[in-house]
Amino acid sequence: MNISFILNNIKVNTDVPGDKPLLRVLREDFDVKSVKEGCGRGECGTCTILLDGVPVTSCMVAAGQVRGRNVTTLEGLESGGYVADLQQVFKESGAIQCGFCTPGFIMSAYALLKVNSSPDRDEIRQAISGNICRCTGYTKIIDAIELAAKYAERNLPEENLSWEDLPEEHLPEENLSGEDLSKEHLPEENLSGEHLSEEHLPGGNL
Ligand code: FES
Ligand code: FES
């Protein structure tokens, strides 16, 4: 099937089976590597992209469904603004370890901040409820998104950005171990490391 769509603001065209998952189209036909395959069944959020501005899991979207639509991946987000803030605070705050889940979290966080520049922690939790991280625990990720929103709100110059800006109660413990992934931080349904098989885990890559 011949499919044309907008990928990161560029009109593209490809000839693929209409039921080929968009995740694979992006990785195999367009070499978009920020989009990761974790579970391949809509449960882990590592493949999150924006479809017409709305975060979706690209493993669950068929190529034929994106004809004429706007597909945005991490590579296509505007530079600066929320994206720069998100990338910086994720790095500063320890919200990245192996990095496999990070592009998906950034996409979900970006989509949230575009429509809600001052989300509370419950709203952040809700926005990332489809994203699974098996390394960091969710507190650091929620802290990072909250901090990115604060930066944007205060419009702080880059050199003043600091993890120390977070209020004391949000600062994570020094050494996050596997035990720190307490149930209250896990997404409701299904954090089972099994979904992220080792062959899919790269060394570290935002
Ligand atoms: S790979 Fe798409 S949700 Fe897990
Ligand atoms: S940093 Fe989230 S899965 Fe490794």
Descriptive overview:
With 206 residues, this protein is of the alpha+beta class. It has two domains: 2-76, Beta-grasp domain (Ubiquitin-like (UB roll), Roll), CATH 3.10.20; 81-189, Orthogonal Bundle (DNA polymerase, domain 1), CATH 1.10.150.120. It is built from five helices and five strands, in the order ββαβββαααα. Helix 2 crosses helix 3 and helix 2 packs across helix 5 (138-154). The chain is globular, with a radius of gyration of 17 Å. The protein starts with a strand and ends in a 52-residue tail after the last helix. The structure holds FE2/S2 (inorganic) cluster (FES) (2 copies). One FE2/S2 (inorganic) cluster binds at residues 96-101, 133-136.
- What is the third-level CATH name, the topology of the largest domain? DNA polymerase, domain 1
The protein's oligomeric status is single chain
- The topology string of helices and strands comes to EEHEEEHHHH
On the 0-100 scale, what is the average pLDDT?
A: 80
* Residues in helix, %: 25-40%
Instruction: Catalogue the unreliable spans.
Output: 156-206
Strand content is: 5-15%
Instruction: Quickly name the level 1 CATH class of the largest domain.
Output: Mainly Alpha
Distance between the termini: 32 Å
Supply the CATH superfamily name of the largest domain.
[2Fe-2S]-binding domain
Radius of gyration of CA atoms, rounded to a whole number: 17 Å
The unique ligands bound to this protein are:
FE2/S2 (inorganic) cluster
How are the strands ordered across the major sheet? 2-1-5-3-4
- What overall form do the CA principal axes indicate? globular
